[in-house]
Amino acid sequence: MARAQPSDVIPTLRPGDHVCLFYESQEEQRAWLVPFFREGLRRGEACVYIMDQHHRHDVAAALHAGGVDVRAEVRRGALSLLTQDDTYLRGGRFDPGAMITLLQGATRDALRRGFTALRVTGEMTWSLGGEPGCERLVEYESLLNDIFPRSKTLAICQYHRPRFPAELLLGALRTHPTAILGEDLCANPYCEPAGLLGDGARVEWMFAQLPRWCSADAPHPASVPSELSVPEVQRRALAAREQHVERMLRARDNILRVVAHDLRDPLNVVLMAAHKLQRLLVQPVPRQSVDTIVRAVNQARRLIHDLRDVALIEAGRLGVHPTPQEVTLLVEDARSSLLAHAEERGLDVEVRVSPELPPVLADRERVHQVFSNLIGNAAKFTPAGGRISLGASRLRHAVCFSVVDNGRGIPHGNLERVFEPFWQQVAGEGRGSGLGLAISKGIVEAHGGRIWAEAEEGWGSAFHFTLPVAAPRGGIAVCSPRP
């Protein structure tokens, strides 16, 4: 059987993928990157090449030789050739947060201009030059795994194996869910879950990977001398119980991390194979079967992302990167998501935004995740012909956002429980994992806001959450988790 070529494998990549290309020669590098751009332009995506060791003319010539009309694509804004000074080293130093903000802004700009996604590749040899901040490269690659899964961005990070020291190659292996090596694109078993950059956390995860790993049994109480007082016996018993609870919580978090990591890799392999079959099959019956597989795998991947977020929230390590955001843009993002549900279920859509609201301090991708969870729940429990309203209004030093429906509502006694992980209003109803509201609560509180529900059974539900107002120009903006 003939070996698959890069041009056959590249189409399996989708927005949200974070890939590392380990290459040894220029021919190997071009064999992957030319079809990567060709496929992106074919899909209507905005494509960005960040250059370092290669000159703009060399990159353009390689793309042109691969069938890309470089001048025409640059002229229409579909292709950009940038330098490390335009991107990674903007401002004279490398700052992971600033680079992530730059990527998120470029993605939003691409979507506003009618492109379907943002496709990026960057040569990483700039990190070998000793510029300020380059020691934070591995931190940056890990942070990308927080924002990519639910974004419209995909990227290939290029690492020239002969030039990079083993330490940085190890960092690249630890932080990329998918890797390209030679002629193969494969799920990377060495990619660690986000947040395990510290040695202590990494050791815990490694122990969790061992086949014989198991949670510790409850500690056996030590024999207590008879001369100890009753208060001392109670103190020792309480200390032993607290240690046991701490071990159980740590074991639970490890299990969630292992599930989120080790289930993702085989699912990625299944999804890649299914996408290949989709391109090969033309008969409707087998094609429908493959489409079913793709939908099921994507649903499982979403569940894994949710489990990972829950683990990060429980551990207090959920990553948010707040920047000043216009309220109207946040609500418009939510409205776009709501319209898809409305068209499918015949729902009326209403938007009420108070005039002249100040910008808020928010991670736009994470806030969109909150809106998606609230809108998805409202659409599930609102009958056809019902109404869902989006709103935003001023609330002292914050802006209050709302998602209101006239669906079946929530019994008053359950209003506090709706934000518990895995809780569902009707047990066993099979309408989701019960994680969306818990994740939304964690995201809002990581911004320094709060979230709550108001509802009456049979008359609908209203979910509200607040985000802090961004500091005026010259002021200091503070965004920290609530105690």
Question: What can you see in these coordinates?
Answer:
It is a single chain. With 483 residues, the protein is of the alpha/beta class. 44% of the residues lie in helices and 17% in strands. The chain has 14 helices and 14 strands. It has helices at residues 6-9, 26-42, 56-65, 70-75, 96-112, 137-147, 166-175, 199-209, 230-262, 264-280, 284-314, 327-345, 364-380, 436-446; strands at 18-23, 46-51, 79-83, 118-123, 153-160, 178-181, 184-187, 323-325, 348-353, 360-362, 387-395, 398-405, 451-456, 460-468. The strands form three sheets. Strands 3-2-4-5-1-6-7 form a seven-stranded mixed sheet, with helices on both faces. A five-stranded mixed sheet has the order 9-11-12-14-13. A two-stranded antiparallel sheet has the order 8-10. Helix 8 (199-209) crosses helix 9, helix 9 (230-262) runs antiparallel to helix 11 and helix 11 (284-314) packs across helix 14 (436-446). The radius of gyration is 25 Å and the shape is globular. The termini are far apart. Mean pLDDT is 80; it is low at 211-230 and 473-483.
What number is the mean pLDDT? 80
What general outline do the C-alpha atoms trace?
globular
Lateral arrangement of strands in the main beta sheet: 3-2-4-5-1-6-7
How large is the count of helical segments? 14
Helical residue percent band: 40-55%
Q: Structural class of the secondary elements?
A: alpha/beta
Largest sheet: 7 strands, mixed
- The N- to C-terminal Cα distance equals 60 Å
Low-confidence stretches: 211-230, 473-483
Reading the helices and strands in chain order gives HEHEHHEHEHEHEEHHHHEHEEHEEHEE
Give the tally of β-strands. 14
How much of the polypeptide forms β-strand, as a percent range? Answer: 15-25%
State Rg.
25 Å
